[in-house]
Amino acid sequence: MFKKILIANRGEIAVRVIRACREMGITSVAVYSDVDRAALHVLKADEAYHIGPSAASESYLNIAKILEAAKRSGATAIHPGYGFLSENAKFAHACADAGVKFIGPTAASMEMMGSKTRARQEMEKAGIPFVPGTSRGLESAEQAKEIAERIGYPVMLKAAAGGGGKGMRLVHTPADLKSALESAKSEAQRAFSDDEVYIEKAILNPRHIEVQILADEHGNTVYLGERECSIQRRHQKVVEESPSAVVDSDLRQRMGEVAARVAKAANYTNAGTIEFLLDENKNFYFLEMNTRLQVEHPVTELVTGVDLVHLQIRIAAGETLPFSQDDVRLRGHAIECRIYAEDPDNNFFPSPGNIRLLREPGGPGVREDSGMYEGWTVPIDYDPMLAKLIGYGSDRAQAIERLRRALDEFFIGGIKTNISLFQRIVRDDDFKAAKLDTGYLERLLQSEPRDSSYKNDDVVAIAAGLFAALDATSMTRGNGLQPASSNNKSSGAASNWKKASRFEALR
Ligand code: MV4
Fold first, then answer.
1. Is the separation of the CB atoms in 352 and 252 below 8 Å?
2. Which pLDDT belongs to residue 467?
3. FRET label pair with 20: which of 117, 206, 367, 396, CA 20 to 30 Å apart?
4. Is 108 domain-assigned?
């Protein structure tokens, strides 16, 4: 087993991996940029190395700097987390060349899945069901028209190097195809320096369902149930849950077996995720494979009882999977909210700044994976995700109850957060009835909020205590601090962010 692991990441995922290292008796090494000198992952790691300026390109994306820190620290393995270098085949190669184990799949697996057309060709060979369409780049508008005619409208144009919706166009009629192809190509060229675009039949109102797999380096592969990730905004996941309310044990087994075959066809090792679209008739289609640990991995951990990060490390160290498919049992239900420093009342604009007051939820069935602490300043330089709040229960209804209760306990003062959006979602009838598809969030945001009286009396009481404690400071600044108690009646009906902004006004 590795004695020392470097974590090439920051924020909550770096903290998550550090915790696994601590549990396993492995020394953890953090890396940090200028602005992250006092970040939580730096405070929690056993050792920390400065790797450069705040710009990600000069720090968390700088392969040479990270390998230099690995060498200096004596770390023999690197966990890449998600984002940054996690799906960078060049980085995996460079780690191998430096004699450091990359905790993830091989560079070859990452390369295969990095090109969507290449992945479709390989999956076609392996007999994996995928959305009808081409597995090669389109050569002309005429060719696109012929194929679209054959597979039937609406069609989807997609960038081969894409993902995340960039270079993607939904086309309903032949008349729109030529200009859609041109704009998809130029967007793909700008975003990925690669204008290869292919065509698929469009699946309308799909659900996004993904399957977690683990594969060791001795040919054993298991699937660990699915995650429903249909609640997205602009191709960013917002809420994820496991299991999906529409996947029964038969569909789960069929999707799981296909996912394991995808992994085998890619010679895949370590943790990975196979994304599917599920149509309204519950047909599922392979979409793409994510060759990393995902943000939403905790919901799978809670319902399977499997620690994915421990197993990633054990697999990378050459161990065999300690259980087989028959040992995998799902128990209960877990739902995750991605807590962001952003303002849901101002088009989700980022809201960096100092966390003046932090009251985190706890109690039965609540997990919080966080990269923040009270007094820390959220930088503008990176993705503004602060934490993930996960509710767990014996069934979906209990998971929702606990999540709602935990969200109402959560108070982050000094910055805006999207907590109020989740308070709305967990009270929404369609969400409670699991009437979800990829259009759900847009519909919710277009509708009028029905009830915003999220009761939060204990938080108000805590805030009152803090106002009292801040009294001296505020008075010297002469900003006329009100006695906290005078706010209690009116703030009983206020959402967390309203109280946070009130807190801003008072401090
Ligand atoms: C699709 C689709 C419908 N039909 N492909 C969006 C991002 C990229 N990873 C794949 N995406 C989609 N591909 C076909 N053939 C609909 C989407 C899609 C979507 C997928 C998952 C989650 C949210 C989404 C939101 C809009 C569109």
1. no
2. 58
3. 396
4. no
The reply to whether 262 and 381 lie within a common domain is no
Question: Any alpha helices (H) in 266-395, and if so which ranges?
Answer: 297-304, 308-316
Boundary of a domain, candidates 201, 225, 246 = 201
* In-domain check, residue 127: no
* Atom 26 of ligand 1, residue of closest alpha carbon: 438
Question: What CATH number does residue 217 fall under?
Answer: 3.30.470.20
Same-domain check for residues 208 and 192: no
Number of structural domains found in the chain:
5
C-beta atoms surrounding 126 within 10 Å: 14
pLDDT over 80 at 457, yes or no: no
Residues whose CB falls within 8 Å of the CB of residue 273, separated by 6 or more in sequence, listed in order: 210, 211, 212, 213, 289, 290, 292, 294
Average pLDDT, integer, range 429-455: 88
378 plus 390 within the same structural domain: yes
Q: Return the percentage of the chain with pLDDT > 70, whole number.
A: 89
Query: Is 73 inside any structural domain?
Result: yes
Percent of the chain with pLDDT strictly greater than 90 = 86
From the CB of residue 116, how many other CB atoms can be counted at a distance below 10 Å?
A: 21
* Closest atom of ligand 1 relative to the 165 alpha carbon: 7
In the reported structure, the alpha carbon of residue 165 is separated from the centroid of ligand 1 by a whole-number distance in angstroms of 7
- Cα–Cα distance between 444 and 60 in angstroms, integer? 36
Q: Which of 122-136, 385-399, 408-422, 442-456 has the lowest mean pLDDT?
A: 442-456
Give the mean model confidence (pLDDT) for residues 277-304.
97
Catalytic pick from 10, 207, 292, 396?
292
Print the domain residue range for 389: 339-449
Query: Does the annotation mark 292 as catalytic?
Result: yes
Counting from 1 in the atom list of ligand 1, the atom nearest the Cα of 288 is 9
Say whether pLDDT at 273 is over 90: yes
pLDDT band at 503 (very low <50, low <70, confident <90, very high): low
The reported pLDDT for the residue numbered 498 is 54
Residue type, 407: L
Residue nearest to atom 15 of ligand 1 (CA): 202
Determine the distance separating the centroid of ligand 1 and the alpha carbon of 281, expressed in angstroms: 17
